[in-house]
Amino acid sequence: MTFFAKLCCGAGVVLMLITGGTPAWAEHSDDPLLNPSMLSPLSEHLMALRVVKAGTRLISVGERGTILLSDDQGKSWRQVIAPVRVTLTEAYFPSPENGWVVGNGGVILVTHDGGETWTKQLDGWQAAAIEKSEAEADLAKNPTDPKAQHRLQDAVRLVKDGPDKPLFDVYFFDDQHGFVIGAYGLAFRTADGGKSWHSFMNQTDDPDEYNLYAINAAPDGFYIAGELGGVYKSTDGAMSFHRVANPGKGTYFGVVSSPQGAVVVYGLRGAVYRTDDGGINWDHIVMPKATLTGGTRLSDGSLLLVDETGGIWRSSDGGKTFQSIPHPESASLSGVVEVVPGLLVLSTSHGNIRFKLPSNAQETSK
User: Fold this and answer.
1) CATH architecture, domain 2-365
2) Mean pLDDT of residues grouped by 10 in the chain (366 residues)?
3) Beta 323-324 vs 221-226: how paired, if at all?
């Protein structure tokens, strides 16, 4: 059994083949799920996958369990210890004090002091056990239901595989209610700040268990971007998701929305699709073939995407067209956050960099 995990490395985004079964780390005392990250003077230059805001503070996560904090808008960074040594893929802070980080090995970390200290709430072993327990309960209620039988079979296999599946994204409504998604359709939610987690893998309309890469809120609901053309929408507060009309055959790594309600998904080899009717119809937005790895909505309402070659793309018309923004960096980009209007911090293959947006007049058409 294999799957492809999205990682940023070296000259660009690569799709790293991870082999299923019991991972090698589970047989050794240096298990990265059981050992904390190591402080390093080179931490600022390690691969950064995401950077997010926690009030006025910035939190960066990346390889080897690296978590960095900045209190001066990304001018300087300091490393804090994480309880794991796996690659961390995404972070979300619903408030300045409370935040969650997800990553490889199905790990979920939490902080209640703005990122100064972290504890582990969940890992792949525990996640698999939760899904198996809930699948058994589902089958007990519906013993002749083929879907319930299939769910339990998949859950048993999930337990056997061990913690080899990463989580890719996390979203919290507030300090208590949130959910995470990941490889092979992993999907878990909490209503008590992560003290307990429950599976909703059977409520994502993803029977083939494709990878789920990104979550975002839009004016008409929540959207998940996933593998092989998968786009899923929720209109019931993220309690369940249904698959919308397939916008294309590409794999999507992110989703952003405009203030007017247009939704844009983006991903592998420059795939970009846009809908302004809730996912019924999609327009293909022609872009260069570089894989798009991160995106955000800026304070002025424009949309911004970044790619594996170091490209930055801005749309001032709700995602109908994108213009290239020239900048001196050549590193692969994996994430972006607007710190204050016009000032970005970009996650790259060698750490985080600051970048001031030029005026529209200085942008060049694609």
Assistant:
1) 7 Propeller (2.130)
2) 36 34 49 94 95 98 97 98 97 98 98 98 96 95 93 94 96 97 96 97 89 95 95 94 88 96 96 95 95 97 96 96 86 95 95 89 43
3) unpaired
